[in-house]
């Protein structure tokens, strides 16, 4: 029994056929067939049976393959490690994250990481959920920060946090003195919401208003939570949004309050299963991200109990906050109504690149 025969057998089992195995090993199909025949003679039993044009492994072949697979484990790990090293230099840590996490969690995490690893460069891509998964799967990102989704082959996930969405108000809003905002309290308010085709979390917000029969108007619409926070700071309305941006905008003068009924979403850390063991520096950064996220959410909880004041908010460069003028009843929209844009509405499309858009994707 020779190693080349074992390699041919393993390639056929992994690829499912002689042709694919030949391509994997960069040899001809007859060469693969000959190696398999030589291996069968050497071990004394048949490995494959033909069913039409398909090559099916025998039960003995399945048992034999288990042993072959175990013998190749160490070599596979070496190959995966080599691919990781080829993919990028060890002096670089690559992170793909939802915009809210990139702006809310990563600044403090990178600062702490830099204190421990001053020679490691960190690159950050703010992307939507699908793009994050693609980069992690292909080994183009060492870590992905996104939302809980259906399991994807080649990607392992771990829970980062279960985050409750908050109600965000201008500091001088009539509801700012309340420690908790119920959806019914927002009756008649101008809600800064998503474009009408949106992802699951935005849909959950819409469903909450619809199920409680709370009517609001939509004076401004956007696809990302960051500009929505900016619009609240400018006095354009109120919103229900992710909590990760709340500490920054609280310093700018917005008011953050708990919201009921509870709307929450599970956020996750993603890593590739295809490129070998996780390097120590990546593990260290992952641990820091967990720590910073927990501290940030605890800080948000504290902020929801603080009295609201004008803070250091700039309100559009020192101007008075914009206040919505009463709208004609015919222009008032109840959440869940048709998605057309009415004359006089402001619609914000932050990025024309689909990778930066929330539409149909998780990009909190």
Which helices and strands, and how do they pair?
Elements: H1 3-15, H2 18-25, H3 29-43, E1 48-51, E2 54-57, H4 59-71, H5 73-87, E3 92-97, H6 99-104, H7 106-116, E4 121-126, H8 129-137, E5 143-147, E6 155-164, E7 166-169, E8 180-182, E9 193-194, H9 200-211, E10 220-222, H10 225-233, E11 239-241, H11 246-251, E12 255-260, E13 264-272, H12 280-303, H13 315-318, E14 346-347
Parallel strand pairs: 3-4, 3-5, 8-12, 9-10, 10-14
Antiparallel strand pairs: 1-2, 5-13, 6-13, 7-11, 7-12
Task: Describe the overall structure.
- The protein is of the alpha/beta class and 364 residues long.
- The protein is built from 13 helices and 14 strands.
- The C terminus is likely disordered.
- The protein has a five-stranded mixed β-sheet with strand order 4-3-5-13-6, sandwiched between helices. Strands 8-12-7-11 form a four-stranded mixed β-sheet. Strands 9-10-14 form a three-stranded parallel β-sheet, covered by helices on one side.
- It starts with a helix and ends in a 17-residue tail after the last strand.
- The chain is elongated and about 85 Å long.
- Helix 9 links the parallel strand 9 and strand 10.
- The longest helix is centred in the last third of the chain and has 24 residues.
- Helix 2 crosses helix 3.
